[in-house]
């Protein structure tokens, strides 16, 4: 606290020092040159230096903004000007808190367990399910049953809120516990709490129905509990082996980090430094005694997981995060499903902010309070994002002066703030978030999360828990007009603003050219972001109910004539594998083979049929695997931690200019897709007028 006070005291004169235009430009150029030099060195203290320069640039901008740009001369300027100012204050708060969270990730490592396995504790594994298909739950349950842990100390339970006989029969067949309850009160939280009362293991591990654990899950995590008796929660990443709607529709899977990778790759690791790791509902281990002490999993909000962690922290228990993927699951398939999931998260965090605000009450340290507050503030971005997407239109349409300052002064203060934040965040977040993509994600979601968040602040009891569907099929591509409508409107307004601004620049001699150029540049950027958001609404086909995982695993094929081929996989699923054959070798479609997969010296063979053959690539479909073979297949594929570790944080390095180019290309594609969908919709409606309703793959 003393160091923070000293640092703040030294920062104030730097932030508040009055500089004229030329001095400010010189100071900004010096700081920008320094941050560009620092960016070339990959060291944590170097990143702290970059953060310091970014904070100075941002606070100088905001100090200037508050003291030199708010002398509004009419109500219209004041309404638009103060609206933008509030959005900027929100963005600055989130930026500063974000630096606090991610400045120094703890990078915790696993601790070894006692050599004597009899000293290892008992663990109940809970797999809550409601409407997921048995094929999805089967894989998770089998993998959980195969976790490398003493069998007399590992108890796997499927918690079936759907009360399905097929699930009961499966659990009885493989020797897994099956728990149901008399009602569905409090959804997932109630399901887990009922299971707590039916079991007695020292620890509880929880996996969503589609999150498949690796064999090493408990050995990686339990060691920290044995060292720290106050540790109540250990969370691991949510890693996904299928693309989410952004990755699928924009074709960026494994090339651009997805929306959640920043949180699991960096933010949670940063939270761990402050003893503020969030429970995320799956892929986690909890100590039973503290969990029961807080009354079980929280039921007061629809984000029961984060609220539970907050309650544990208030009682003085510790939390931990291991940034090592130890499970993998299915991402949401459709844009509508993805938005529905984010709405639930946003509503729940707003409910916690309203009913159990981390800034208030006892038990939390300052770092914990700020980490929780920033997580909750994040979901309030809906209104500020819409303000930023429309702010320059206030000048282009109504000539409202939202900055009461010259264009050069605005540039001298605002541009360093923007550039420093972009370069610094790229250096800190580059493995897990590429520049500008966050604006695309927020633009898509802003309109939808804004109303439930604001309603939850007024009445936290509004809204209900909704289950995110997984494992679906999209048999025909279509443009989701319903989901895209809000940002199509915003795109149209910005395109119109661009036309109006260019017209004024060309034909209005009285217009301020410099002010127009600034607003036109801002509007052009908004066009790029909103057109990329439109591209997300063009749903791609997904013909496989079970996405395949790209992985290279040594294999051999035994053909019917006794010939054996050494090869390797290119992908796998529960139902089949893709094989890369040696040069010059082919296997015809329809051939029956025995496919052997290897893990070190371990080998298992699976009967399969060739269902696809092209050059040196073939696709195999497994033939009626026995339960024992399903266990063996899971061990050789989904339960291998190395497969998920190889894909973790390994996308190409981020550079802001390259990222802006990529987003711009996606934006151009979005406009083309919108034009195509519009023409198809017009043709469809014309056909309906002539011959009646036409069945078509559309979403209106």
From TrEMBL:
Residues 543-638 form the PilZ domain. The chain crosses the membrane at residues 26-41, 48-66, 78-100, 372-397, 403-423, 486-507, 513-538. SUPFAM superfamilies: Nucleotide-diphospho-sugar transferases, PilZ domain-like. CDD domains: CESA_CelA_like. Its EC number is 2.4.1.12. Belongs to the glycosyltransferase 2 family. The gene is bcsA. It catalyses: [(1->4)-beta-D-glucosyl](n) + UDP-alpha-D-glucose = [(1->4)-beta-D-glucosyl](n+1) + UDP + H(+). Its main location: membrane. The keyword Signal does not apply. Catalytic subunit of cellulose synthase. It polymerizes uridine 5'-diphosphate glucose to cellulose. It comes from the Bacteria. This is Cellulose synthase catalytic subunit [UDP-forming]. It is a multi-pass membrane protein. InterPro entries: Cell_synth_A, Cellulose_synth, Glyco_trans_2-like, Glycosyltr_2/OpgH_subfam, Nucleotide-diphossugar_trans, PilZ_domain. Keywords: c-di-GMP, Cell inner membrane, Cell membrane, Cellulose biosynthesis, Glycosyltransferase, Membrane, Transferase, Transmembrane, Transmembrane helix. Pfam families: Cellulose_synt, Glycos_transf_2, PilZ. Residues 125-294 form the Glycosyltransferase 2-like domain. One of its GO terms (molecular function) is cellulose synthase (UDP-forming) activity. Pathway: Glycan metabolism; bacterial cellulose biosynthesis. It is found in: Cell inner membrane. Its cofactor is Mg(2+). The keyword NAD does not apply.
